[in-house]
């Protein structure tokens, strides 16, 4: 386990403390760790869903823009990943 310090908005701190008092988390640290895990899972699920969509049909520009916003990446970075994915026609394969 690694100890770090984080700063939270007052409302978020109160929410985390209320979750602990209500017995839905053993500690504020545990509640925050669960929130980080949930966000990571949601992002991974989003990427998997978008990859499946890309397999079925090419990605329209507005979807690429939405993916970029959701993932916090540039459109170019998203397109690069989409185009380099194994199994995609014309994709480069690792040697």
Describe the structure.
This protein is mainly α. It is 65% helix and 0% strand. The chain contains four helices and no strands. The chain has helices at 10-21, 28-56, 61-71, 75-84. Helix 3 (61-71) crosses helix 4. The longest helix has 29 residues, at 28-56. It is elongated. It starts with 9 loop residues before the first helix and ends in an 11-residue tail after the last helix.
Runs with pLDDT <50, length 5+?
Answer: 90-95
Shape: elongated
Q: Count the E strands.
A: 0
Largest sheet: none
Alpha-carbon Rg, integer = 19 Å
Derived structural class = mainly alpha
* Mean pLDDT level: 85
Task: Provide the helix percentage.
Answer: 55-70%
β-strand amount: under 5%
| N-to-C order of helices and strands | HHHH
- Summed up, the helix count is 4
Which descriptors would you attach to this protein?
elongated; 4 helices; 65% helix; mainly alpha; disordered C terminus; 95 residues
